[in-house]
Amino acid sequence: MSVLSALPFLKPVHLRSPRSSPGGQRRHTLPASEFRCLSPEDAVSVFEIEREAFISVSGDCPLHLDEIRHFLNLCPELSLGWFEEGRLVAFIIGSLWDQERLQQEALTLHKPRGTAVHIHVLAVHRTFRQQGKGSILMWRYLQYLRCLPCARRALLMCEDFLVPFYQKCGFEALGPCQVTVGGMAFVEMQHSVRGHAFMRRNSGC
């Protein structure tokens, strides 16, 4: 059984009923809203959203196109995309890490035996911002991680101005991050992911 088939909250979520033709027969339409793991085929759409979201603010992207493809080939199960009528509107990309704190190598490595999920990037398409989609997507992602037997913690690094956003999502600040990018400094944040067996008993996973 695939991971997705075992996780009902990652199956397509229809927010409105399928349209019907005048004769009463249902048309084949794309789901109004769908959450699913990303695939390498989604890499270009992911990069377009990320580039617009980050370059205007920091001048660079957390992940470049080849790095996006790299992680979506290695660990697509640690990604999550939000699609509206087939169009990607927001996404998260993560990988596994096996140390207590993030290090420079965490930017490019996926450690299959790790128990910490390093969230590399969360981005929302510009026309869908200020609608709470980032918070909703993060909530769904954390729920998903609770059903993965490998995941114990979620880690991320962010700039100071984003700390309040992630605190509202349930993350706690661990202090300055050891990782730097182009001279930029970051705060490292953590969210505990409870044990797989406990959450399976209490969340229906």
Automatic annotation (TrEMBL):
It is an enzyme of class 2 (transferase). The keyword Cytoplasm applies. It catalyses: a 2-arylethylamine + acetyl-CoA = an N-acetyl-2-arylethylamine + CoA + H(+). Residues 33-194 form the N-acetyltransferase domain. Its EC number is 2.3.1.87. InterPro entries: Acyl_CoA_acyltransferase, GNAT_dom, SNAT-like. It is found in: Cytoplasm. GO terms for biological process: circadian rhythm; melatonin biosynthetic process; response to light stimulus. Keywords: Acyltransferase, Biological rhythms, Cytoplasm, Melatonin biosynthesis, Phosphoprotein, Transferase. This is Serotonin N-acetyltransferase. It comes from the Eukaryota. Pfam families: Acetyltransf_1. GO terms for cellular component: cytoplasm. One of its GO terms (molecular function) is aralkylamine N-acetyltransferase activity. Belongs to the acetyltransferase family. AANAT subfamily. Its main location: cytoplasm. Pathway: Aromatic compound metabolism; melatonin biosynthesis; melatonin from serotonin: step 1/2. It comes from Indicator maculatus.
